[in-house]
Amino acid sequence: MLPAVCAGCGRARTPLCEECAEGLAGPPSRARPCPEPADLPVVYAAARYEGAVRSVLLAHKERGALALARPLGAALARAVGAASLHGGGGREPLLLVPVPSARRSVRARGHDPVRRIAVAAALALRRSGTYARAVPVLRHSRRVADQSGLTARERLDNMAGALEVAPGGVRSLDAHAAVLVDDVMTTGASLAEAARALRAACPGDVRGFTRTSAAVIAAPPLPWETGRNRQGRSDVAGGGRGKGTNGRTRW
């Protein structure tokens, strides 16, 4: 019953104004955390995690603004296109493998934001002529701590060995090109662990995993671009839940 306001800037009568939508529409670029985890695949990001982009992502993730999944999915689709080319794309279908959220985060929010955006991205790719589908084959194999406030090293330790491919998942991935997807990359710990889990589950001769790539909607500016601390510690007020806290964390 209330009038819509832009999730990015608060402008009235629109869930996402043209100006804020433009922040999601730029060309994808390589994204690298600092320090960069050894197992991190090549990552492409559609935007920087700041300003209106950050507000839009948080509105979708934490405040249930589900209509934003479509523009966020379109942004992710562009990053997926760039990542798939790096990973030896060209085979279809193109599989989007979302990094899973912790079960407690999904229960608390009432939805899985990364999975929802991955589905929207696959739809956007199909509209553009690339057959793609989301395949949520990764799951948590153990409980992980809340990552809010952890250093880069602590996040890597927290995520080490925490993900696995669900039974039957390898069969879904066999002989197809796959790109790991997430909403935000901060330290890269979640994506590095997801890539490790895929490599562990898939034999070396399974096509599509010789060069794993990844795509995200946004990544923070590098520390030397912002003057923020270089220790990889979160310094944004507010908490988060499980893996989903990546959406709230900046360098």
TrEMBL record:
SUPFAM superfamilies: PRTase-like. InterPro entries: ComF/GntX_DNA_util-trans (IPR051910), PRTase-like (IPR029057). Residues 223-251 are annotated as: Disordered. It comes from the Bacteria. PANTHER family: DNA UTILIZATION PROTEIN YHGH (PTHR47505:SF1). This is Phosphoribosyltransferase. It comes from Streptomyces tirandamycinicus.
